[in-house]
Amino acid sequence: MHDVINHLINTVFGLGWPGWAISLIAYLLIATILFMIVPFQMLFLTYFERRAIARMQDRVGPNRVGPEGIFQPVADGVKMFTKEDIVPDAADKWVHLIGPGIVVAPTMFMFAVLPWGPGMVPFDMNIGLLFFFAISSVSAVGLMASGWASNNKFALLGAMRAVAQMVSYEIPAVLSLLAIVLVTGSLSIVDLITFQSGLFISSSDVPGIPDFGLGWFVFTPVGFLAFIAFFIAALAEGERTPFDIPEADSEIVAGYMTEYSGMKFGLFYLAQYVLNFLLCAITAIIFFGGWQGPGVGWLYAQAITPANPAGNGLFNVLAGVLGVFYFLAKTYFFFFVMVWVRGAYARLRIDQLMDFGWKLLIPLTLVNVVSAAIWVGLTKWGAADGLAFVEGWAPLMRWAVAFVITLVMNLVAYFFLVRVYSQSQDERARLDDEVLERLTNVA
Amino acid sequence: MDIQRGNIIVMDRRRGTLRAGQGLLQGLKVVWDHWVGSFRKNDNFSQIHGTFTIEYPDERMKLPQAYRNMPVLLYDDETGQELCTACYQCARACPPEVIHITQAKDPNTGKMVPASLEFIIEYDACMSCGLCAEACPFDAIKMDHFYELSTDNRMGLMQRKADLNRPVSYYTSIAPDLWDEVKEGAMKKLQGSIKRRPDVIGIAGHLSEKIAARRRQLAAEAAASPPAPVAAAPAAPAGKLSPEEKAAKLAAMRAAKAGGAEPAAEAPAPAAELSPADAKAAKLAAIKAANAAKKAAESPAAEVPAAPLDEKAAKLAAIRAANAAKAAAEAPAAPLDEKAAKLAAIRAANAAKKKSE
Amino acid sequence: MLKTEELQINIGPQHPSTHGVFRMIVTVDGETITDLKPVFGYLHRNHEQIAEVNTYLQNMPYTDRLDYFNSMANNHAYALAVEKLVGIEVPERAEYLRVLMVELTRILNHAGALGFLINDMGAWQTQLAFGMREREKILDLFESASGARLMCNYFRFGGVARDLPPDFMPRLKDLLIAMPAFVDEMERLLRENEILLQRSENIGVLPKEVAISYSVTGPMLRASGVPYDIRRAEPYSIYDRFDFDVPVGAVGDVYDRILVRIEEMRQSKRIIEQVIAQLPDAQGGHINPKARQNVRPPAGDVYARVETPKGELGFYLVSDGSLKPYRYKVRAPSFINLTPLGDMCRGYKVADVVVILGSIDIVMGEVDR
Fold it and tell me: Euclidean distance between the first and final Cα of chain B, in Å?
């Protein structure tokens, strides 16, 4: 955006404005666009989810308001806005009021580092990934605040669960990303995407691979395991089934949202769906190349970029459209997977969720980090780093050896850990003997 | 433990296999199959895939003939005679006791006749069990298929006879087979009870109520003015004729109003378009008037000269009665009704006692 | 030393997963349950007292409202009781129709119960929707035979209200084609799902002896490993003519209850197939005993019981020789199966309470009466 505006103002009109003015205009414009897009994303996702899950249940879903029910979320929004805002007498009024705001704000911040297309990133931070996850944990404060301020036992339980869950699933999420960061050597989200050009093999790993924009991380064993672990953690982070424990409606009514109504309740929903969108987007970006796809790289090479100031503006637009299309298609696909999972599974119990996170997911991602290190060593290092024996191998050979070794490592780790984990679960279940004895004594 | 003709099977819990996510994938597969299959309609009982939604206000389920919602009363299309004879079987069968019946009385003799004067069902408390329809020996009470009864007016759910009356043709349109089973018996019984019904009592809904009200006023009038110029015996046919004529006239007037400038002969046709009730009433009245005229023509010669005189007197009385009714509302009619109801109740009680003994 | 406090939570009477108006006073230590006190009676409708002012036939539609999921099975129990009291013979075809309806009821109840149970575990209604689809098909059949979907009121003393309509049998046969596919699919969804296993295995264990001492019946008891099925233990109606197996569980936890219900659907389908094969052709008058609108049993008392999908439903009637029962008592399976809830839940987590409650498969209409 910055480049295009710079080109428009300084080259086409020849006004010669300073860089800060152009940056200011660009950021204002981007922020406006984002704040308009975000609520629409949420509206669309609620509609999308309801229709998709209805299909999975052999139903039709909302199809009354507007053609095929497309205005259903608008009707819901109107309902939310016109509902009475009820604050319980015993609630801490101010915290009760601020809670939803604290939950929503971080999700908006997270858009700052989200690249939508080639050259279409609001702010390319060199620690973008870190920023993304650091900011996302702030909403736990809001959840706790609203749960506590409601002065309701269900809300408090829900908030406790939410915070416990968020804190423990940050770790596997970040660990699985750590593996990717090891491979790319950068925390910048834009770098992560540019790394993923190629065709099944990243052109950064093996130079000379034709660029079809398909060198995604998910095609490597390290990336695949990281993807699975990250997606599971994302489900927990976004409070989706099977980890929607904080708002488990069959147990604790609506969790921390129990005492909220009207638009405050709507804000929680907004935050949740926007967070889900962001998690899907970040999954698509990190493991599935974001806007990478056949054609985008070639189009962007012809466009106006800092590297190529003499390009054609039309190609900016074309690359942008195609890139955003790929990106959104992938994102919505992952949201569909979330819906699909929601349609198929029951919910875990809170202690089982913790077990799963700490006993299976974290060891698994730790092993994956080691795999990533081996991968980096085999594909990138040379004699200077102490790996002289790989020096003579062809890049493809190095890639293949790394692939096989990490695949075997990850598979072994997976089955070993699953076995250990299920044994530990059986062990837990066997504690019931005590209960059994007590019960038999009753008889 | 052994059991005959079967085994006791202990459920296999399939322990020992490593559970590494196969079950989860299986679940995803099942849901995926449904998602893919949901783009066509599940219209057959043998299918488990496909949407099975019926989009209610646009589409409606085909209701089976036996479907029962709320009870209604049937009347014969042609004569307008109700099948109900006020035998109280339904009221006695009703578990929540929401059926209330008043039996009609012959205004001349004061005797009970096999017809209901008022028939009330409290729809709000009715449990749609269908026992009334099963209990009815005359097949007069049947279960309706109409189910959109929601209302904001709770008292509106107390359905009176006028709201409950449905023609037999309506019932045959919703449950032809069920009606065919009982048709003959019901019609035969109806003929029997028509014979015992004097004049307009037991004629359906809107029509009968209008006529009955007029009839009551006439009777009151007659009782109030004893020095009538006619004998008691020939008064009966006259009394029978006049309200019908009145109804016919009314119907004709209405039809004329509805039809505007059209000639009277064509009046029933537009009337039928506008309000079937009026047209039916007019038709019925016309048929009755014709019948009465025929009867009068066939009656013994001694009564023939008396007839026109009687008619004139009756007309006069009718006009007077109408005026009186306008002035004094229905004051004289009310006590009569009450008495009839009381009598009916006593009779029913006696009958019940006899039966229980 | 850190001091923790026990928290008292009221689950219900208005709660999404108490299956009606039911309240559990749960004392929790963290998330672990130390005590559970069930409170019911919010749906009390004076059923038994009303029955004593009604005639025998008038009670038939009221029995529909006991366990509104299985009105046919309730009808059956009550009809059996009155027939035993008066001494009425039931014609062959009517007996077969009764068994047919009751077994269809069993399928629909288990399909719904499994769906609700998985819903309580937190699934987003998919399993319930699948169960409801089959249930709706069966309810369509009920509607065409009896006139109503839920409150069927189909049984009469000495028969059933009316014979089957002509389109009933083809639709039933279609349904039987879909049934194995549906049950298999349900099993694929439930049997090996790791999440479901974690939520149900060794949860809410009810050992054999405890189940018997609480006089629990139905799938609950069978899941605890007691092969007690009234259709086998004391064959009523014509159940001695059919081949079917009695599934029992090994442990008596929620998982066993799921498995037993799945298997019972299969066995019910087997019975229905036998009914179709054996159904006599006698038509008309034998089915609809209009002459028996009002029965006047001799003075005496009777207890009749049937195996409803939820357990043993019994009616105890005392007649003083009049048109109305002198005493009318219902032995409701939901109510008695609910009594060991506290013992089953102690030591488990809050999230397990709703699952255990769901696995009992209660209907509050029957618990509170």
Answer: 53
Give whole-number Cα distances, C1 to A299, B60, C4, C33, C285, in Å. Answer: 67, 67, 10, 22, 80
Cβ of C205 within 8 Å of Cβ of A436? The answer is yes
- Percentages helix, strand, coil for chain A (3-state, rounded to 5) are 70, 0, 25
Region of residue B79 (left: phi > 0; alpha: psi -120 to 50; beta: else): alpha
With tokens 């004895």, the residue in question is A437
How many other β-carbons are positioned within 10 Å of the β-carbon of residue B304? 12
Residues forming beta bridges with residue C35, ordered by sequence position: C27
Of the candidates B223, B186, B212, which has an alpha carbon nearest to the alpha carbon of residue B118?
B212
pLDDT tens profile C238-260: 888 888 888 988 888 888 899 99
Residue environment code for C58-84, b if the CB has 16+ CB neighbours within 10 A, otherwise e:
bbbbbbbbbbebbbbbbbbbbbbbbbb
Q: How far is B18 from chain C, CA to nearest CA, in Å?
A: 10
**A419 close contact with B: CB closer than 8 A:** yes
Taking 80 as the threshold, does the pLDDT of residue C277 lie above it? yes
Per the model's pLDDT, the better-predicted residue between B273 and A338 turns out to be A338
Q: Contact, B135 vs C161, CB < 8 A? A: no
Q: Tell me how far CA of residue B52 lies from CA of A380, B34, B43, in angstroms.
A: 57, 12, 7
Query: Does pTM surpass 0.80?
Result: no
Q: Are C246 and C222 in contact (CB under 8 A)?
A: yes
Please state the domain extents for chain A. 83-349
Interface contact B30-A422, CB threshold 8 A: no
Is B46 in Cβ contact with C174 (below 8 Å)? yes
pLDDT by residue (tens digit) across C180-232?
Answer: 888 888 888 888 888 888 888 888 888 888 888 888 998 989 888 888 888 88
Domains parsed from chain B with CATH numbers = 71-219 (3.30.70), 243-356 (no CATH)
Q: pLDDT-based confidence at B2, cuts 50/70/90?
A: low
Q: Kindly state whether C339 is in contact with chain A, defined as any CB-CB distance less than 8 angstroms.
A: no
ipTM surpasses cut 0.90: no
Strand partners, C29: C32
Does residue C78 contact residue C315 with C-beta atoms inside 8 Å? yes
- The enclosing H or E element of B112 equals strand B112-122
